[in-house]
Design brief:
Blueprint (H helix, E strand, L loop, with lengths): L1 H9 L18 H10 L12 H8 L4 E2 L6 E7 L5 E9 L2 E9 L15 H10 L3 E6 L6 E7 L2 E8 L11 E9 L6
Antiparallel strand pairs: 1-2, 2-3, 3-4, 4-8, 5-6, 6-7, 7-8
């Protein structure tokens, strides 16, 4: 499912900064994600991250993709040479937010560059009151991480990269954020 979403995000146009946003490059994607997550209440009425919240946090306009009636997304490039897509999918049960990073192989290297590290992201989530951590994964497959706070559930898929030579240093590839009622993983 995440691979299908990733492919659909590739075909979205690159996002343009919204009016009033001097540059979308002032804050890192990790900073924007943490601010977006920190602004979510997780109250009983919380139905997931709204399109307006994502547009504000990432300074983009979310557009419908081809054949994606209930989903809106945007793609952004990062000066370090990788890109990411943000997507909000709406259903009767609520909204699911996805962040998908696209880090290409560098010439002559066997592993991709690092987007940002899971251990850094995890420390910041813990600072926001989230609990959880490593949820499993075979040694050569993507690793799964799960965090939660009140009604907010966060899943992270990570990968090994060139810059990460220690076993506990993984890089973020995909982040899904949804209400716990939708969390069937």
């Amino acid at each position: 499912m995440a691979a299908l979403l990733g492919l659909s995000l590739l075909f979205l146009p690159l996002g343009q900064p919204l009016a009033g946003e001097p540059s979308a490059r002032l804050a890192s994607p990790e900073d924007r994600l943490v601010a977006l997550i920190g602004g979510q209440s997780g109250s009983n009425a919380w139905q997931g991250i709204s399109i307006a919240d994502v547009e504000r946090a990432f300074a983009v306009r979310l557009l419908p993709g081809i054949g994606r009636v209930r989903a809106r997304g945007a793609r952004r490039e990062v000066p370090a040479g990788w890109s990411y897509g943000v997507d909000v999918k709406t259903s009767q049960a609520g909204r699911e937010f996805q962040f998908v990073a696209f880090a290409p192989l560098r010439p002559g290297e066997l592993k991709r560059q690092c987007t940002f590290r899971v251990d850094s992201f995890e420390r910041r989530l813990r600072g926001l009151g989230f609990s959880g951590g490593f949820a499993g994964g075979p040694p050569v497959s993507p690793n799964l991480w799960h965090y939660s706070r009140r009604r907010i559930s966060i899943h992270v898929i990570s990968y090994d990269a060139v810059e990460t030579d220690t076993p506990n240093s993984k890089c973020v590839e995909t982040i899904s954020i949804l209400p716990t009622e939708q969390d069937h993983v």
